[in-house]
Structures are given as C-alpha cells and as structure tokens.
C-alpha cells in the first residue's frame, strides 16, 4: 500500500511540475549577444555555448596599449571611438539554440564582409530553407530572419561562406560577425521543447529515486521533488537557454548520482543501527559531487588552468615525478617545485577515463566531496551526535573558496586538501592508548603525503602541524596527558619523520636543489614588500565573518559567526571525547595565523580560506547541533541558518560560472 501511495504521489507531483514547466514556456523569450564583446557591460564570450565554428574575439582580451605599447590594456580600452569588437566566422559556422520552444522567431544577425571590392556571399541554412545574403566589405548590415522552431523546439542555423585567404593569417575566415539576437513572436499558447522536458523529468526521477534509497522520509523526498520542479520552472522562465543547453548533461549527472546512491544503499545494508545515518552522509556527499560537477560541466563555464593540470597528470603518467611550475610575480616569480601528490590520486583513473581534462575536473570534485563525509564522521567521533554531524557536513556542500578554485582551475589546491585532511582527521580521532608502531607509520605516511600536495597546501599543513605542536607543548608543560589526544613525543616524532622523509626523498632531487640554489643566489627574485600587520589582521578577521573577500567572493557571513561561536562553545567543554576536535581546530586556526604571516614579506600568501573552511564547518556544525537539541524554535533557527549559508553558496557558484573569464 505504501508503494502504491508513493507511486501515486510521484505521478501527481510530476504532472503538477509539468504544468509549471508548460506555464514557464509561455514567458516570451528575447535575447541578444554582442559577438566579440559588449563594450557597455565589458562582457564577452557569452555566445560560446551556442555557436560552433567561430574564431576568437577581437581585439584580444589583453593587448598592447595604444599610447604605450610596453603596457597591456583590456580589449575595450584599445577600441577607437565607434569601433566595435567582433569575431570572424569560419567557412562553416553553426548556431544551435536548443530548447527555445515552438513557434515563430525573429533571428537577427549583423556582420560585414571580407576585405575587397565585391560583397561577400554567404548562404544561411535553416532547416530546408536556404538564404543567400550579400555582406558589403565596408558596411555593417543587420539581417532579420523570420523562422520557425523545429518539432523539438530548437533553432539551428548554418552559415556557409567561401573562405577568405589573408596573407600571413592561417585561419579560415568567413565574414566579420557583430551581433546575434533572437525574439519570440506571437502571443498565442506556445508549445515547449519536449526533449528538454524529458531530460528534466529524468533528472527529477533520478534524484527522487536516489533520495528514496538513502533516506527514510517520503515526505522530505516529495518536498525535494516539488522544490526542484519549481526551481526548474523558474529557470525555464528566466534563464531558458542556460537551462535547456544544460538539460542533457544535468540528466547525466542525475543518472550517475542514482548509480552512486544504489552502490551506497548496497554497501550499507548490514550496518544495523548506524545504517540510516551513514546513508544520509552518503547522500550529502553525492549531492556535493553533483553540485560541483554541475557548475564545472555547464556549457557557459570557462577555465584558465584545468588543461594545465591535465598536462601535469599526463607528464606524471610518463614517469615525470619531479615537476616544476612558474610562480606568479606576486610570489617571487621563477620556477619552483610543483609536487604531484594530487595527481598520484588521479593516476589510476586514466585506466577508466580517456579524457584527462574531464578526469582532473570531476576527479578533483569527487575528492573534495569526500570532505563532506569526513566532517560528519569527525563530529560523530567527537560525541556531538548525528544532527550536528549532518548540519556541519551540509555547511560544506557549497564551500565558496573551493567552488572558486574549481572554476578557475586551481585543481591541485583543492585535490591536495583531501590528502592534508587525512592527517587532520587522524589527529582529531587519535587515541594515545592505541598509538602503536603501525599508527605511527600511518601518521608519518599521511603527513608526508600531505606535504607532497600542492605547495600552498604544504605550507598550510606545515603551519597546522606547527600550531598543533605548540598546543601539545603547552599541554605537556601543564602536565595534561589525555588519552584521546596525540602526545607531544609522538607528534614530534611524526612531524620530524615526515619532514625528513619528504626532504630526503623528494625535495633533494637535483632539479629542485639547483633551482632553489639559483633563486637564493639571484638578486632579482621579485616578491612584494608585504603588508602592515594591522592591515593583515583587519583583512583576515573581516574575511572570516564575510565582510571582505579572502580571494574572489566573500565567505557566507553567518558561517563565520556561527563557526566562531561554535569554537568558543567547544573550548568550554570538558568532555574527553572532544579533546581531539578542540586541538585539531586549534591547530587549524593557529596554522592560519602562521600562514598569514607570509603577507608580512610578500604580496601573495597561501589560500588560507580554502584550508580553514572544513574547520569552520566543524565548529559551525557543533553550534548548530547545540541549537538543534534545544527545541522546535531553535531547530528552525538552525535550519534557517543552514539554508542561508547554502543559498549564499549556490548564488556565488552561479555567479562564478556566469562571470569567470567572460570579461
């Protein structure tokens, strides 16, 4: 009977959601793209998701300034009065506007022909209709074309132009393109793009099925289904093309998530009383992976360094373990060691995935999603209960510094953190009574692996270890010998052993020694003059509470406030089970302070917010767990706080995908 009721509720929900989506398609669609860039908004490449076979925008993003060729200027700064940016088409250029919906449309294109005395002839194909247009060489022409969407609700145009051969330019040049626009005509009922509704429906069904496998609340799952359906309707009405072009990929992500949910369900069948909680943690981890992958795989997303990491992974697969990379000028410039720890984790994936770019992107997202599970397990191991664990883990679903790094392509920073987090977790859950020889070897191995992650992670992990050692020393002097905490002798042995091992085996390589000696012997090593101590303190504190941005966008303001409150609450507790968590968080905060000291002598420091963010979620989870235990009103406050943190993170993620490298 319950199965029949759930099926009936699912069918009713899907029918209601389809009505919402049909209503969303009645909103008129009108969009325009400035091909080459919009001088007013200083945006460009927004059309990349919809066109194929067009050359790069001109002028280049950064080029020599007109008044001083030794300096570089942005593309909008080098345009003459009245001049417009543009793109050359190729001989065959395709425009694919999928999912716009049925009905009549006006498509607008403007362009100019090839250099010469004769107009450039170009054939524009729309379904079975072909138009031949003539583009003057020295005059911009705007063409308005009336056409119908096909049966699937798509608009497809093909531009065929005889190529122009320019001396010294190897490109295949069609015509100069300035503008593309689309406007829906007519006021009658509009049919939707049925394939898009199909893809979105498959996504909803997969999410609902996965949630059903990993949670025990049918009402919550049904609410999730309606919430996602409403979000889809708003997206179709307000950002249709950004949604429809992504619909097949979204269905693929949802399908993979369902497979992972099934694997999680099978793996947890025999866990008894812990089964429900573990499945909820698995569900959060899968959701984290889906959110990260969705932003990275959206057709509008652009990256600067992802291919760099794919090439590094390829070099490692050829046996090049001792790799280097150029430092930015803010960090001193020149070549420096580039540890390959994160690539080691992804190396086996090459046996399954041929596309290394996809492997480093999705593989890094998967590695970071494991931190969600790590946060939940650490909070449970510290005796804070399932509610605190789940709330703290949910705080890491959309971590802004991680999302920015994934978008930019700073994948080694993100992937290296899971290695460092392994040692942090070991410190939190360590039991001094269980520190056998095997534990010591494991701790040395974890710390050594973390020190071979990205150099920024190496510095942060080293600062964390130093902070932890300082706290252990204070406790040793005060005569405290808690069984639930790694002792000073063991920590000293682990830290010195890991550091010695890394220096002896890795950084003693001749290629690294020679490079470091050259940098030490050079008088022109670059580097900035640093910042005043007061400015560093004010900027760091402001960043933690979300007033300032530690990198790109500010952190969620409530997260910093709740995390600091949770840290204070934890430090007042006396339960021995929480000792490891308190010391681990203390090490993270002291390590952040030590790593920020780099700014005293350099203009660029480490990405401290990236390393500290799991610690913020740990203490925030503790505080939210306290609220959860104090009554219904406090539970609503905890859920509202979490919703604001997640909503802010989702908004920043959307903005990052929309804006990065679109200038």
Please describe the topology of this protein.
Elements lengths: L1 H23 L5 E5 L16 E4 L7 E3 L7 E3 L12 E11 L6 E9 L7 E7 L2 E7 L5 E8 L6 E7 L2 E3 L2 E5 L2 E9 L9 H21 L3 H21 L1 H5 L2 H21 L7 H23 L8 H12 L6 E3 L8 E3 L3 H6 L9 H26 L3 H10 L5 H9 L2 H19 L7 H15 L3 H23 L10 H18 L4 H12 L11 H12 L12 H16 L6 H18 L11 H21 L3 H28 L4
Antiparallel strand pairs: 1-13, 2-5, 3-4, 5-10, 5-13, 6-9, 6-13, 7-8, 7-10, 11-12, 14-15
Helix pairs in contact: 1-3, 2-3, 2-5, 2-6, 5-6, 6-9, 6-10, 7-9, 9-10, 9-12, 9-20, 10-20, 11-21, 12-13, 12-14, 12-19, 13-15, 14-15, 14-19, 18-20, 19-20, 20-21
Number of strands: 15
- What is the distance, rounded to the nearest whole angstrom, between the alpha carbons of the first and last residues? 57 Å
Q: Approximately how much helix is present in the residues?
A: 40-55%
Mean pLDDT: 89
Which residue ranges are poorly predicted, with pLDDT under 50 across at least 5 consecutive positions? 523-527
Class per helix and strand makeup: alpha+beta
Number of helices: 21
Q: Calculate Rg over CA atoms.
A: 28 Å
Residue fraction in strands: 5-15%
Oligomer: single chain
